[in-house]
Amino acid sequence: MLYRKYRPKTFSEITGQQHVVKTLQGALLGGRVGHAYLFSGPRGTGKTTLARILAKSVNCEKYSIAGKSEKERVLGRIPCNVCASCSSMDKGTSLDLIEIDAASQTGVDDIRQLTDSVRTAAVGGRFKVFVIDEVHMLSKSAFNALLKTLEEPPSHAIFILATTEPNKILATVLSRVQRFDFKKLTENEILSKLKKIAETENIKIEDIGLRAIAKASDGALRDGEVLLSKLIAINGDENNISAQSVHDALGLIPYHYYPDFLSKLAASNGPEAISVLHTLNDSGFDLENFAKEFLEYARKVLITKVNPVLASAIHGNDDQIMAHSSNIDGQELINIINIFSHARAGMRHSPIPILPLELAVLDAVGK
Ligand SMILES: [Zn+2]
Fold first, then answer.
1. Residue 268 and residue 364: Cα distance in Å, rounded?
2. Residue 169 in 3-state DSSP?
3. ipTM over 0.90
4. Which residues have CB under 8 Å from 11's CB, separation 6+?
5. How far is the CA of 155 from the centre of ligand 1 (A)?
6. Residue 114 Cα, ligand 1 centroid: separation in angstroms?
7. pLDDT in tens, 181-224
8. What's the confidence (pLDDT) of residue 249?
9. Which architecture characterizes domain 187-250 according to CATH?
10. How far does the signal peptide extend, from start to end residue (predicted)?
11. What distance in angstroms lies between residue 89's CA and the mean position of ligand 1's atoms?
12. Rounded to the nearest whole angstrom, what is the distance from the C-alpha of residue 82 to the centroid of ligand 1?
C-alpha cells in the first residue's frame, strides 16, 4: 500500500499541519517536550504519523539539528531514521513506543496493562511513548484509570492521545493535555503529495485525474493514497492512467462535461446543452451532483476572471478554465451561475429531477 510506503519518517516530509509541526519542533529544540498531548482532527490527516515521528525524535540516538534541507535546518531536531531506536520504531518492534487502538482495546484491563507498563523505565533509557488512538472510545472506567496516570506521569513517559471526536473527551483529561488540532488537508496539498508519489512510482496520470482523486479524498491524505493504490492495481502493468479511468473508478461524471456544458450555454446553444443533460441522465449519472460540480466549475471560471492571481491556487491553471475565463462575458457568467444555483435548489422538490435543469438551460440561453 502506498500510504505505508510513503508514510513520512521525519518532520519535513509531513504534508500540511505546519502549525503542529513547528510547535512540536520548537518544544524539541528547547527541551520542553510535554508529557501529554491530544492530537485531534479528522481521520487520515497525519495524527499517528506525527506521533511516531515525535516518539523517534525524543529517543533517537544520533538526532541531528542541522538537517539536509533548508527547511529541516530551520525546523531543527530531526530523527536520524537509521539508529537502532529509530529503525525499531519504524518497524514497529520498539518496546518504547506503545500503540493502542482504543477502538478495539476499550477495557479497563487494557488500560491497567498500560498504566503498569508506564511505571517501568524506557528500554532505551530515554522516553517511553504511549500512543492511544481513537481515545474517545475508551470506556469510562478505562478513562478514569488513564486519568490517574495523566495526573502524575513519570518523567520518562509521554502520552499522545489521538481522536477524531474531541468533544467526547472528558474535561478532566482535556485540562491535562496540550492540544493540537489537525486540519483537513487542502485539495492542493493532497494533489502535490500524490504527484510526488506518482512520479516516484513512474506512473503517468493525467492531472485532471489526479485532481479528481485529491478532491474525492475530502481532506484525508490517506484516502487519496489508498485510491491511487487501487487505480494502479486496476490498471495492471499499464503505467499510464487516464482521467477517464479515474472517473470510471470513482463513479464520477467525466470532467469534460463541465467545460462542454458551459461552452454550449455561452454559445446560446440550447438544444445541445439540453442534450448533454439527457446523455448524463441516460448514463445513470446523478444530475444533482452534475449541477453542483458544474456550479463549482463556473465559479472557478468566475474567480479566475475577477482575480487571475488565484488561478493556480484554486485549479492549478487548468487550460479550459483559463480559456473560458477570457472568453465569457462576466455578467453572462454571473447570470448562468444564478440560474443554475436556483435550479439545483429546486431539483429536490421537483417531480422530474431533470426538469429544473432543462428550464435553467432555456432561461440561460434566453429562449
Ligand atoms: Zn535515530
1. 8
2. coil
3. yes
4. 21, 24, 25, 53, 57, 72, 75, 78
5. 21
6. 25
7. 999 999 999 999 999 999 999 999 988 899 999 999 999 999 99
8. 86
9. Orthogonal Bundle (1.10)
10. none
11. 9
12. 5
> How many Å lie between the centroid of ligand 1 and the Cα of residue 305?
51
Per-domain residue ranges for the chain?
Answer: 2-181, 187-250, 257-364
CA 186 to chain centre: 7
Distance of CA 222 from the midpoint of ligand 1 (Å): 25
Within this chain, domains 187-250 and 257-364 share the same CATH topology: no
Q: CATH number of 257-364: 3.40.720.10, 1.20.272.10, 3.40.710.10, 3.40.250.10?
A: 1.20.272.10
Expressed in angstroms and rounded, the spacing between residue 198 Cα and the centre of ligand 1 is: 28
What is the tens place of the pLDDT at every residue in 56-103?
A: 998 988 766 655 555 544 445 678 888 899 999 999 899 999 999 988
Spell out, as residue ranges, where the chain has pLDDT lower than 50.
72-75
- The CA 31 to ligand 1 mean position distance, Å, reads 17
Q: How many residues does the chain have?
A: 367
The alpha carbon of 9 and the centre of ligand 1 are apart by a number of angstroms equal to 11
How close is the Cα of 23 to the center of ligand 1, in Å? 21
Q: What angle do CA 104, 105, 110 make, to 5 degrees?
A: 170
- Topology adopted by domain 2-181: Rossmann fold (3.40.50)
Q: In what order do the strands lie in the sheet with 97-101?
A: 97-101, 128-133, 157-163, 36-40, 178-181
